[in-house]
Amino acid sequence: LPHAALPATLRFSTGAGSTELAAPWPLPTADAALALFGPGTWQATELRVAQGLLHGLLHNASNALAVPVLTARLNASTSRAALLGAPHPTAAGGALWPFKIPLLAEDLLESGLTLTLHIAGQDAPLATLAWARGWAGEEAQRLIALEARVQALERAAAAQAAALQAETRRRQAALREQLDTFLEFSSTLLRERAANTASPPTPEPADLAALRQLLTAAATTPPPKAAEARQVLPCTAPCFSFGWHAAEADAGGEFRWMMPAASLSNPAPLRPLAAVLLHVRHWYGGARPGLRAWAGSAKLDVEVQEAEGGYTLRLTPIGGPIQTETLRLESLHSGSPARDGASADSRELALAISQAVFDYRAGAAGGSTA
């Protein structure tokens, strides 16, 4: 399928000027071309680094109307979207897409930098690049990946500690407020009884009866129920720790934008986790939301399901329920609306999550890891 201005029309005939064999087939959008001819095969050529940018060309010789979704995976830990230029047709009928990927100073670790190019719809990477400081080899790539994983774990641990401190402060403030209210009510009641000693002992004053009911209810409060098998957490919950923008709302309700990489704390880390459902309201940089996820060093299976008002991402441990404290998330697509010219929003956006649902295996907390 050659590159052409859309909307276009497919015509079927035996040659130039001959009678058409069938009615013209409309081709209104690039999505229609993708449905008819498939995504084609992409190749990355003419890769070079200049002025802090990785430059290159994406070549598709089969479907010149396909729109690429290109991301770079840096140091096996973070993802970054590519900036695409305008496509250029080739003499053979394909298309060339120039692209740029910014390289930051913090991307270069002590041992070097690795970069892998991925495109949506193709499992195999387009290219793999590596830079080492003074020495090269397979050991350099393994050391770079190890350093990147250590940095990710350090960021996740710091974010989890901050979330725990915030939750502790919130609970302490709530406890102080309840205690102050109780003391104020009790002191007021005692002052009124001291000033009203001549009042008849019966009937019992209403405020004393209220205090008696409060103490009776506190003494007879039943023990807490067993933990629920499912916990539904809104986007404002403390579990949205590292890598999340502040919560916001629109006509459909509250949501929180995720950065290209983020952490999600498990509210019950001692319970066997069977699945996590992330409800996606909006997404940026791709036709559908995409995600990679890990629980510690274990990779999670990610299933994209259509849902009302968006999509649901189901994260499932591959070997069965596991115990974990933090989930590490990486979006397949991300970008900045200000950099792309879509709006003045300069944030790095990936997925907008409205809530997270944690499903646990039935049974008591603790035990061995499944």
Would you give an account of this structure?
The protein is α+β, with helices and mostly antiparallel strands and 370 residues long. Helices cover 22% and strands 34% of the residues. The protein is built from 4 helices and 21 strands. The strands form 4 sheets. Strands 12, 13, 14, 15, 16, 17, 18, 19, 20 and 21 form a 10-stranded antiparallel β-sheet that branches. Strands 3, 4, 7, 8 and 9 form a 5-stranded antiparallel β-sheet that branches.
* Cα end-to-end separation: 50 Å
Low-confidence stretches: 363-370
Beta strands, count: 21
Strand content: 25-35%
Mean pLDDT: 82
Helix content: 10-25%
Label the overall shape: elongated
Radius of gyration: 29 Å
Structural class of the secondary elements? alpha+beta
Compute the number of helices.
4
Order of helices and strands: EEHEEEEEEEEEHHEEEEEEEEEHE
What is the makeup of the main sheet?
10 strands, antiparallel
Quick structural overview:
The protein is α+β, with helices and mostly antiparallel strands and 370 residues long.
What is the topological layout?
Layout: E1 8-10, E2 25-27, H1 30-37, E3 42-50, E4 53-60, E5 70-74, E6 78-81, E7 83-84, E8 88-89, E9 95-102, E10 112-119, E11 127-132, H2 138-194, H3 206-219, E12 230-234, E13 248-250, E14 253-257, E15 261-265, E16 273-283, E17 291-295, E18 298-307, E19 310-317, E20 326-331, H4 337-340, E21 351-360
Antiparallel strand pairs: 1-2, 3-4, 4-9, 5-6, 5-10, 7-9, 8-9, 10-11, 12-21, 13-14, 14-21, 15-20, 16-19, 16-21, 17-18, 17-20, 18-19
